Fold this sequence. Notes:
Helix content: 25-40%
Number of strands: 13
Bound molecules: (4S)-2,6-dioxohexahydropyrimidine-4-carboxylic acid, zinc ion
Number of helices: 11
CATH superfamily: Metal-dependent hydrolases
Strand order of the largest sheet: 2-3-4-5-6-7-8-9
CATH architecture: Alpha-Beta Barrel
Radius of gyration: 19 Å
Strand content: 15-25%
Order of helices and strands: EEHEHEHEHEHEHEHHEHHHEEEE
Distance between the termini: 16 Å
Number of domains: 1
Largest sheet: 8 strands, parallel
Shape: globular
Amino acid sequence: MAPMLTIIRPDDWHVHLRDGEMLKAVAPLTARQFARAIVMPNLKPPVTTSAHAKTYRDEILAVLPQGSTFTPLMTIYLTDATDAGDLVQGHKDGIITAAKLYPANATTNSEAGVTDIKKIYPVLERMQKAGIPLLVHGEETNPEIDVFDREAVFIDKILKPLRRDLPELKVVLEHITTLEAAAYVANEGKKGRLAATITAHHLHINRNAMFSGGIRPHFYCLPVAKREKHREALVKAAISGAPMFFLGTDTAPHTQAAKESACGCAGIFTAANALELYAQAFDEAGHIERLEGFASRFGPAFYGLPVNKELIKLEKASGGENKIKAILTGGGQQIIPFVPPSPVLWRIAES
Length: 351
Ligand code: DOR
Ligand code: ZN
């Protein structure tokens, strides 16, 4: 019989659902695997108020398949002009779960992001007091800094001073890609105020994948994949059983045309097969039994939420990989899912 694994239904602590036709195409894929997801606010225009977060949440709920119990957990996009009162009230009202820091121009739709962390210190102080987590896109934005160094530089220049100034603030360093980040979070995360999400794709590829046999736009995201030693450090962190590391796919759909262009967008789309990709990576590293902690327990513990009640079953095919097809949006555009260089044998067992 094929090896099976039953785990508590996981949550995705970092997802881009977009809006309009794209939302309709991708939200059911996330809802099929995950009970809850932290929804990123980098729409056009960005979700900067709790009123906008509320209408966006309704938009998401409206496109879910009938009977779906999926819960979107909403975030606010911080700007230099964020209204702390609105954020705190939105959190009290159960609309807002967290706030996202995009350093201005760090990534897709981040132009309206924060230009200087000091400008939002009053907001961060209020968040610290109210227990609202700060979710961080941790990359230095100075274009003179090498793109492969931007995460490590951000940690030294911005994150360390920030955490010194606001030691009680809950911080998630999102989609970590370096051994520097993994080591920092492992050390500093012991008191439960610092954690990191790890994507499925960063467990599968290193930077060579972007250039194997030609340029591979579907392996390009930000933060960009790094050298093999960094991928290995991420796998080690993910399978370590340490609760400061948990699942966040950063699934970031763009149309095929927007990816395969002279200036292709950053973002890797994993909503169609994320859990399978994680299972494969954990299995290859010899620790499939640690998947449940990473995928289903440590995230809720950090956010102070209960773990899910339902279970989900995975199975490993003895041969033949789990083939994923392109997704078609209602607008007639294709989204190309992430397919790693080596075969994925795990799949969700339809029960
Ligand atoms: O690759 C990325 N894509 N990184 C981000 O930080 C944003 C995301 C997107 O929204 O497409
Ligand atoms: Zn993201």
